[in-house]
Specification:
three-stranded antiparallel β-sheet
């Protein structure tokens, strides 16, 4: 079973990958809201990574319209190997899925590194690292 990835440019995503607005309430109910009093932003991302038969991983990275930052997500194996990376999402944009760079096993530990940037300057506005595991569908 393999999972492979497309790496996007730092500054933008493939236009067809980026969606404008917010996904349906059903999707929002199934993802985790990431917010802390010390963070100048909030974000939504799937905490449970399910690898489909076509090797896509539903990540549901959502940058809400009220944010004043651009968001980027990197997915790493526990050992630090990069599995996938998004480009920057502007406020009011989201991406549904990514593909992993190489195969992973069911139950592998994964790190989600969510980074925020000030628009236009790319000045870091902070980052959050989330721990989860991958689930591979047969």
């Amino acid at each position: 079973m393999g999972c492979f990835c497309n790496l996007f440019e730092f500054w933008s995503l493939d236009v067809e990958s980026v969606k404008a607005g917010m996904p349906s309430s059903d999707i929002l109910n199934g993802v985790d809201k990431i917010q802390h009093e010390d963070m100048p932003f909030c974000a939504y991302v799937s905490g449970e990574l399910n690898v489909a038969a076509d090797n896509n991983v539903d990540i549901w990275l959502i940058n809400p319209p009220e944010n004043a930052v651009w968001l980027k997500l990197r997915v790493y194996e526990k050992n630090g190997t990069l599995l996938a990376e998004t480009g920057l999402l502007k406020p009011g944009e989201y991406i549904c899925s990514v593909k992993f760079e190489h195969a992973v096993e069911n139950g592998d530990e994964i790190l989600l590194k969510l980074m925020s940037y000030q628009p236009e300057t790319y000045f870091s506005m902070g980052e959050v690292i989330l721990n989860t595991v991958v689930h591979c569908k047969e």
